[in-house]
Design a protein that fits this description.
Layout: H1 2-14, H2 19-22, E1 30-37, E2 40-46, H3 51-60, H4 72-85, H5 98-102, H6 114-120, H7 125-135, H8 139-145, H9 148-161, H10 167-185, H11 190-203, H12 206-219, H13 228-245, H14 255-262, H15 285-296, H16 300-310, H17 320-335, H18 339-352, H19 366-370, H20 373-383, H21 388-403, E3 405-408, E4 413-416, H22 443-452, H23 458-470, E5 475-478, E6 487-493, E7 523-527, E8 540-552, E9 560-569, E10 574-579, E11 593-594, E12 608-610, E13 633-637
Antiparallel strand pairs: 1-2, 3-4, 5-6, 6-8, 7-8, 7-13, 8-9, 9-10, 10-12, 11-13
């Protein structure tokens, strides 16, 4: 190793540099880096190595770090350095001006504007690190970079970059940036530590979260409470990470995160709970979310203490929102299987409301509560005589939607929910010789999804697959974001529209065979990290429902397929359109990498977008799931370790 380092270092001192490296900054030769988006270059970067890149090239023969194996600009820089340093040069060539290379670049476009402009142009993590290394070289640079403007540009740059890289790599880069700032100026702004905590929460990294939290406590004066906004962002990030994690690891070990959040097994008071925003002693959205976090981390004892504190001022005439926030905590307990504690919480709410559960019939996750037979049996007693009939009415309406019928009070009878107005009252729900009223209603399937929410039951997903077979080829109108007024879109039901060579997918449902992720058609969508799938932390877990079609709004011409499938996002309970091109048109293909076209060439549709029903409002795809427009992604059969019988 020492001889290799000596030989490569000798080359650096013996060979002259090309004019591109001796020229002033204004004369540097730009290298255009293509990022494979509609064949256009997204940005231009100057191929001038930083000191760390020169050292890495001397040690390893490449400027690429462990995190950018496919980085286009690193590859071109390697070629340039090889031409400069490893070629044959005349013996009498003058010595190169090495000092000019090692000196930090001090060029500025205006009062420290250069770094901000450069950061906004970055699309790769390695580029961002090179920019910071180029511009931040002394204490003055460090202090200027830590201003509110510098943080804003860094946050903006990371929002672009994180769509192409894993959260773990972002956390590693933030740690390097903060360490550099600490080394140059002694301290770092608290806002940088808060940003680090946020990305550490998304990565669910206990060591990184602890490192940034300790740095925050060092520079933050007492009391060191986070703002309400930062507290909510941090708790939401942890909740989202835990929620998506259970779709990859059914029984993850979260004890390290719990200890860091609550300080359970530590004598020090340096824990996340002690710096979160302090709320009033009544149920609030933030308190409910934090209790949910503790519940999912299995911190039941501490959750009980905060729960009792939050319901002290709960009274019969308290605002409806207070009760809704309390029910959120109960639903989290049911979802994690802690039904006894959930019943105890409901009893305490009912006692403070004089034997009622105000507004529980309007609770969005009521179906989750009713999945427990123990809660269903006690609900009439706890909810009260006024609220319980409303609960039954809500459940009855949901059942009617799933059967494809609807109650018409003016006629005092059930009718078909769509199509010809057929009377359903007095007729059996299931028949042998004829289809029951409501059968064939395409809304039935979507009503089933609405009732299932984020179900991880194999039997539940099997019912959806059966409905897809029953409604094969039927059209249902849908809406897409920013839909053009001269276009109509529709979902054409089809089970397993994407198939792979190594997976046997039956054409129709065979009730004698057990359900598996492959015959359910479950897919995992992994976003691209320059030709390689990102780690599972950024994956989408979906169940395809069919293909997306369009036609002009002005006539009733034939529907044309857009190249998208419509799928049910099992993690976030959303309908999403996913561009797959012609994959679903050719059976038994092993094509898995998708290069979506530009939005202009794709009927105005993004590669990934939410799909809504005409009667529903628009729902946005979570920012931590949505990739940048035209970013490459990969499709594969979802192993679905989260599924239960």
């Amino acid at each position: 190793m020492s001889s290799l380092l000596h030989s490569r270092s000798a080359l650096l001192s013996q060979r002259p540099l090309l004019a591109a490296f001796r020229a002033p900054p204004s004369q540097y030769r730009p290298g255009h880096v293509s990022v494979n988006v509609s064949g256009r270059a997204l940005y231009t970067t100057i191929l001038k190595p930083t000191p760390s890149q020169l050292l890495r090239f001397a040690l390893t023969g490449t400027t690429k770090s462990a995190n950018d194996h496919h980085h286009p600009s690193s590859t071109e820089l390697d070629q340039n350095l090889s031409e400069v340093l490893l070629g044959d040069w005349p013996r009498n060539s003058p010595r190169p001006p090495l000092m000019r290379i090692s000196q930090p670049q001090t060029e500025r476009r205006g009062p420290y504007v250069g770094i901000y402009v450069a950061m906004t142009e970055r699309r790769y993590l390695g580029d961002l690190q090179v920019v910071i290394e180029k511009y931040v070289n002394n204490e003055k640079d460090s202090l200027l970079f830590q201003t509110e403007e510098g943080l804003t540009f860094l946050e903006r740059s990371l929002r672009h970059i994180r769509r192409r890289t894993s959260y773990g790599e972002v956390v590693s880069a933030l740690n390097a940036i903060i360490t550099r700032l600490e080394g140059l100026s002694g301290l770092c702004s608290e806002r940088f530590y808060v940003l680090g905590m946020y990305y550490a929460a998304l990565a669910l990294s206990a060591p990184a979260l602890e490192r940034f939290m300790k740095g925050y406590l060092v520079v933050r004066s007492e009391p060191a409470y986070l703002s309400m906004r930062d507290s909510i962002l941090l708790v939401n990030a942890l909740l989202d990470s835990l929620h998506s994690l259970k779709f990859r690891e059914p029984t993850p070990d979260t004890s390290a995160i719990l200890n860091l959040v609550t300080g359970t097994n530590k004598s020090t008071d340096r824990n996340l709970q002690n710096i979160l925003f302090r709320t009033a002693q009544h149920p609030t959205l933030f308190t409910a979310k934090y209790i949910c976090l503790l519940v999912r981390l299995q911190g039941g004892t501490i959750a009980d203490k905060i729960w009792h504190c939050s319901i002290r001022r709960l009274k019969p005439n308290s605002p409806d929102s207070w009760f809704q926030h309390a029910y959120v905590c109960v639903a989290a307990l049911v979802d994690t299987g802690d039904v006894p504690r959930a019943i105890r919480y409901l009893k305490q709410v009912s006692r403070r409301a004089n034997g009622r559960l105000p507004g529980i019939s309007e609770f969005g996750d009521l179906s989750c509560l009713l999945t427990s037979d123990a809660i269903s049996a006690r609900l009439r007693q706890l909810a009260g005589e006024e609220e319980y009939p409303k609960v039954l009415e809500v459940q009855m309406s949901q059942m009617e939607d799933r059967l494809g019928i609807r109650w018409h009070p003016e006629k005092s009878r059930h009718m078909s929910a769509s199509g010809p107005p057929l009377v359903a009252s007095g007729k059996p729900l299931l028949t042998i010789d004829d289809d029951p009223t409501g059968y064939g209603n395409v809304r039935c399937l979507l009503a089933e999804l609405k009732a299932l929410r984020c179900s991880r039951s194999m039997a539940d997903l099997g019912r959806v697959a059966t409905l897809l077979d029953e409604h094969e080829g039927k059209i249902f109108p849908v809406m897409v974001p920013k839909q053009r007024s001269n276009m109509k879109f529709a979902l054409s039901y089809r089970r397993c529209p994407v198939q792979f060579t190594n997976v046997d997918l039956p054409v129709t449902t065979d009730a004698s065979k057990p359900w598996t992720p492959s015959n359910l058609g479950l897919l995992r969508i992994a976003f691209d990290n320059t030709k390689a799938p990102l780690p599972g932390e950024r994956s989408m877990h979906v169940m395809p429902l069919g293909v997306l079609s369009w036609r002009p709004a002005s006539n009733e011409s034939r529907w044309k397929e857009t190249g998208h499938i419509v799928a049910w996002d099992r993690v976030y309970d959303l309908l999403v359109a996913i561009f797959v091109g012609n994959i679903y048109k050719s059976h038994n293909t092993n094509e898995q990498t998708i290069n979506p076209p530009s939005q202009e060439r794709n009927y105005g549709l993004e590669a990934l977008a939410t799909v809504s029903l005409p009667s529903d409002g628009d729902r946005k795809l979570p920012s931590y799931s949505k990739p940048r427009l035209a970013t490459r992604y990969h499709l594969e059969v979802d192993p679905s370790p989260d599924l239960i019988p």
